[in-house]
From TrEMBL:
Pathway per the UniProt entry: Bacterial outer membrane biogenesis; enterobacterial common antigen biosynthesis
Listed Pfam families: UDPG_MGDP_dh (PF00984), UDPG_MGDP_dh_C (PF03720), UDPG_MGDP_dh_N (PF03721)
Domain UDP-glucose/GDP-mannose dehydrogenase C-terminal as annotated: residue spans: 324-420
Oligomer and partners: Homodimer.
Example of a GO MF term: oxidoreductase activity, acting on the CH-CH group of donors, NAD or NADP as acceptor
Sites where the protein binds UDP-N-acetyl-alpha-D-mannosaminouronate: 160-161, 212, 216, 219, 250, 252, 263, 330-331, 416
Reactions it catalyzes: UDP-N-acetyl-alpha-D-mannosamine + 2 NAD(+) + H2O = UDP-N-acetyl-alpha-D-mannosaminouronate + 2 NADH + 3 H(+)
SMART domains xrefs: UDPG_MGDP_dh_C
Enzyme Commission identifier(s): 1.1.1.336
Active site: 212, 266
Gene from which the chain derives: wecC
Cross-referenced InterPro entries: 6-PGluconate_DH-like_C_sf, NAD(P)-bd_dom_sf, UDP-Glc/GDP-Man, UDP-Glc/GDP-Man_DH_C, UDP-Glc/GDP-Man_DH_C_sf, UDP-Glc/GDP-Man_DH_dimer, UDP-Glc/GDP-Man_DH_N, UDP_ManNAc/GlcNAc_DH
Protein name: UDP-N-acetyl-D-mannosamine dehydrogenase
Length: 420
């Protein structure tokens, strides 16, 4: 059975590229979002988020009549839910958006439909979603009651694309398919195979949920290892970048890179879902989160020490000192400031410092509102010329291209090893 209409619920960084990928294969896709601005922008053939190559695919899909957006759910043969799953309170997963999305599609569900949850979710979330749907539609049968014979098929299929490379990874990556029954997995594989060049790897929904959390926790733990090494090396007077380069010459060692901390809305969030469900067992995963979350504060103390040195040596007053922060984004060569440790550092530093704080971010054109009145947006050249203390926070390509001779300052805090 094919899918006459595919409906993607949530048209953000994951939902919109996914909707566009189906539409690019001449599938009729209706994207649903509660954000009227996003819906209007997409219906004009434009995009409201930044992701390389997405604009052209969306434009072609909308102009070709294969993709349209709406604020109202419509009947479809397949629903993919890609709404936010942030944490709340003491780092517990907040499933309120998933629940709202399930409630919104329940009235339009028809016998034979496939419902896929793509949002990163705690273990058991798919069964929970199936429970919500079953309560709202007692006239239909669901996998938890009817197994293979269910009228509605449900699966958990996590997304693992790397922001900045979404349009390539969406198609090329292997995809984990966690059906609530083997029939659900088969239907979900059939759906993704419309555009997937990677392989569909089939499992159950709970393993698929844990798989997504595991991937990001693995990376978080490994970054925490590098960040912890950077603290030890600073204390021991060892260049951590050289150390990691040397250690990585071992055939079975592959250490990641330290930095100002871990940002973005995935790696800094998802490991907490494991900790929330298994607080006793998840000791290493929790500690990694704590190590990475504490790194910005360590960096700020390094900057304070550099400023103190600068004051002592120059005899200037603190109000006469200029600090320049290089980079605000959560990782190199993007404009995304969400959960960025560089932003946190710039914000806290500019609140503490009585002199001028410059922010250099080549990927944005105006200061984010948290920094307005505290920082000035400067070009690389202005910052190199005016600042007493340089703080390297994001290894954007233009910063890496700065020749050593251009960096005259003696007080440098380099969290990315760019000016080593
Ligand atoms: N961005 C990534 O790199 C990435 C990668 C893998 C997994 N994920 C996961 O995918 C999910 C979505 O992430 P994202 O980055 O696309 O988020 P996003 O914030 O960019 O997009 C989510 C969209 O859902 C919409 N929305 C919220 N509630 C809705 C509802 N009830 N009905 C319809 N639309 C609704 C929002 O308006 C928004 O446009 C999250 O669980 C996230 O953890 C994200
Ligand atoms: C397992 C994995 O790969 N998951 C990816 C990840 O995407 P991401 O863009 O969030 O991931 P990163 O590029 O790792 O960046 C995260 C932060 O870590 C910092 N960092 C990184 C490497 C390093 O050596 N040292 C560091 O300090 C970096 O600066 C930034 O702040 O989650 C997405 C959503 O679930 C996944 O879909 C996507 O596959």
């Amino acid at each position: 059975m094919s899918f006459a209409t595919i409906s993607v619920i949530g048209l953000g960084y994951i939902g919109l590229p996914t909707a566009a990928a189906f539409a690019s294969k001449q599938q009729h896709v209706v994207g649903v979002d509660i954000n009227q601005h996003a819906v209007d922008t997409i219906n004009r053939g434009a995009i409201h988020i930044v992701e390389p190559d997405l604009d052209q695919v969306v434009k072609t899909a909308v102009e070709g009549g294969f993709l349209r957006a709406s604020t109202q759910p419509v009947a479809a043969e397949a629903f993919l839910i890609a709404v936010p799953t942030p944490f709340k309170g003491d780092h517990e997963p907040d499933m309120v958006y998933v629940k709202a999305a399930a409630e919104s599609i329940a009235p339009v569900l028809k016998k034979g439909a496939l419902v896929i949850l793509e949002s990163t979710s705690p273990v058991g979330a798919t069964e929970q979603m199936a429970g919500w749907l079953a309560e709202l539609r007692p006239d239909l049968t669901f996998p938890q009651q009817a197994g293979e014979a269910a009228e509605i098929n449900i699966a958990y299929c996590p997304e693992r694309v790397l922001p900045g490379q979404v349009m390539v990874e969406l198609i090329k990556n292997d995809r984990v398919i966690g059906g609530m029954t083997p029939v659900c997995s088969a239907r979900a594989s059939e759906l993704y195979n419309i555009f997937l060049e990677g392989e569909c790897v089939v499992t159950n929904s709970r393993t698929a949920e844990m798989c997504k959390l595991t991937e990001n926790s693995f990376r978080d733990v490994n970054i925490a290892f590098a960040n912890e090494l950077s603290l030890i090396c600073a204390d021991q007077g060892i260049n951590v970048w050289e150390l990691i380069r040397l250690a990585n010459r071992h055939p079975r060692v592959n250490i990641l890179q330290p930095g100002p901390g871990v940002g973005g809305h995935c790696i800094a969030v998802d490991p907490w879902f494991i900790v929330a469900q298994n607080p006793q067992q998840a000791q290493l995963i929790r500690t990694a989160r704590e190590v990475n979350d504490s790194k910005p504060h360590w960096v700020i103390n390094q900057v304070k020490a550099a400023v103190a040195d600068c004051l002592a040596e120059t005899g200037k007053r603190a109000s006469e000192i200029t600090i320049a922060c290089f980079g605000l984004a959560f990782k190199p060569n993007i404009d995304d400031l969400r959960e960025s440790p560089a932003m946190e550092i710039a914000e806290l530093l500019s609140g503490w410092h009585s002199g001028t704080t410059l922010a250099v971010e080549p990927n944005i054109h105006q200061l984010p509102k948290q920094l307005i009145g505290h920082c000035e947006l400067a070009t690389t050249a202005e910052a190199l010329e005016q600042a007493d203390v340089l703080v390297m926070l994001v290894d954007h390509q233009p910063f890496k291209a700065i020749a050593g001779a251009q960096v005259q300052q003696r007080w440098i805090v380099d969290t990315k090893g760019v000016w080593r």
